[in-house]
Amino acid sequence: MYTYTPNRKNVKPLGRTEPLADGLWLAFSGSGATFTFTGSYCAVTIAGDQSARPDNTANAARIAIEVDGQRLVDDQIDAPEKTYTLVNGGLSRPHSVTVIKLSETAMSTCEIRAIALDTPTLEPALSRPRRIEFIGDSITCGYGIDDPYPTHPFSTATEDVTKAYAYLTAKALDADYSMVSISGYGIISGYTADGNTKVSGQTIQPYYPTLGFCHESFGGLDPSRVVWDFSQFIPDLIVLNLGTNDGSYTLDHKDRQEEYSSAYSAFLRTVRYFNPGAFILCALGIMTARLCPFMEKAAALYREETGDQRISCLRFDEQLPSDGYSSDWHPSTVTQEKAAQRLTEAVRQLMLW
After folding, report:
1. Ordered structural domains, the chain, with CATH
2. Residues with Cβ < 8 Å from 70, sequence gap 6 or more?
3. Which residues of 287-300 are buried (b: 16+ CB within 10 A; e: fewer)?
4. Secondary structure of residue 51 in the 3-state scheme
5. Residue 188 in contact with residue 295, Cβ under 8 Å?
6. pLDDT per residue as tens digits for the range 27-70
7. What pLDDT, on the 0 to 100 scale, is given for residue 314?
8. What is the Cα 139 distance to its own chain's centre?
């Protein structure tokens, strides 16, 4: 038996990952790894953080493992360590394996700790021809998408990034992806229920240059203290979908809307600094179109002040009651699929893909 500690050389990372001495650390939605091998046995061990308890299904990390394109594992890491036997017996033949963190960074992180094979044939999967980074909030995370009851609260057990518009778009475009998304977060304010209290502690900017953000510790480690190496993933395109949570604070207050627009424009400078070669697409409107004009104003201001023409805007169609909702009135699978189709078509025209 051959046992490997996964790293960026023997597996292909998905999204932002961090190699540790004993494995590959996953924080943001969609982070993971994919690899190939030839053999008749494969097992993968996943380690959890402090959230990994049987009584914590609302926050424990949810992961999926696919073998040869089929999802064989869909589970929450509710124990310090769990091992999944994926292939066991039969003829020795080529296989592809993909591990994806379905749930978001804020509630929990996990680690791909070990890969066990019966042959010494572990290889990283091939890279795709295109690369897209998505920066967003709960919509990008796939918040509640497996719960068709809008009055139900959040749970990582019902969150699946692979059913959200960003992942679906990357798949349709045959692109590798990276997600930087946290539910409830915005540009100047996170979601606020009373429409007046500014939640300035829930903005995406401080975590954009990091591995993520989490309320829990992973062996004493904090993903927000890990500086992300932007050379590890150089996107051709960056899609920003931020403003839904800001809208709960700005409402129709002109001064707040202008503050959002100004801060958005400043964030575009940050995104460009770290990604000098990427085209930037600013998108908004799936849950509310309230701030779309101010997103567009921010892009125009940025373009005017910098002369940077590699930026454009897209308005999504708003979700329809007839398409249903997920928990906390988030987009349903139908809405997410429609948004993916809209974005895919726009990107094909924009990037000539």
Report:
1. 2-124 (2.60.120.260), 130-351 (3.40.50.1110)
2. none
3. bebbbbebbbbbbe
4. coil
5. no
6. 999 999 999 999 999 999 999 999 999 999 999 999 999 999 99
7. 98
8. 10
